[in-house]
Amino acid sequence: VKANVGTISGTSDLIEGSGMTSFVLSNGTQMCITYALYSIKSRRNLLSFKDIRLNGYHIETTNENGKKYLYITGNASGRKQILEKLPVFSSGLYIMKIRAIESHNVVN
Questions:
Q1: Per residue, what are the HEC states of the chain?
Q2: What is the number of structural domains in the chain?
Q3: Which domain of life is it from (predicted)?
Q4: pTM here?
Q5: Which of 3, 12, 22, 50 is the most exposed place for a label (fewest CB within 10 A)?
């Protein structure tokens, strides 16, 4: 599936495919996105608040000592727990490192 996507610099034909993806955030929080867009040309990816919420997590913004962060939180035994703490860029976007969950399909 090839498609065009709108970016800050205009429309581009970056999208080369789509499908499900699973990955792990820096502190081990697992995410699964049913309809992810794939682009080999892209060096960055966007993760929407909707995708985070669909995985059962919540989002909060906070200011610690003059620095802004985005928290991804979850509930463990009825208590709120901060799972990920993401710093903000001057552009207003938050950065996180992810790693793929390795999987293999076996077909007979």
A1: CCEEEEECCEEEEEECEEEEEEEEECCCCEEEEEEEEECCCCCCCCCCHHHHHHCCCEEEEEEECCEEEEEEEEEECCEEEEEEEEEECCCCCECCCEEECCCCCCCC
A2: 1
A3: Eukaryota
A4: 0.70
A5: 50
